Amino acid sequence: MGQKHSKTLGSDQDCQLLRDFFGLKLRFVIDECHDKTKAELIQHLKRVKKKVNKRYYCFICVIMVHGNETGIATCDDPIHPNEIKAMFDNTRMAKYAGKPKLF
Hints:
Layout: H1 11-25, H2 38-51, E1 59-60, E2 67-68, E3 71-72, H3 81-86, E4 101-102
Parallel strand pairs: 1-4
Antiparallel strand pairs: 2-3
């Protein structure tokens, strides 16, 4: 963890399939980021959280990276999934309380 991982064969195709499914088929708003440090990922997620508004029915966060029991790989330090989910809990995101959030 913390080191830059080589791209997994087919990951670009997987990302495109997700974009097509969520963006084109389901018409979800998509926000992507690539190759971020832990701090940059946290800042990106905070910006995403500010853009989410009550008119959306649900929030889905897909993170496609390597990881293990210590967390999800970033370009420097791992981040634990619970740290990400906590940013979007019902107290920190009261306007979304009771709405589905999928990670």
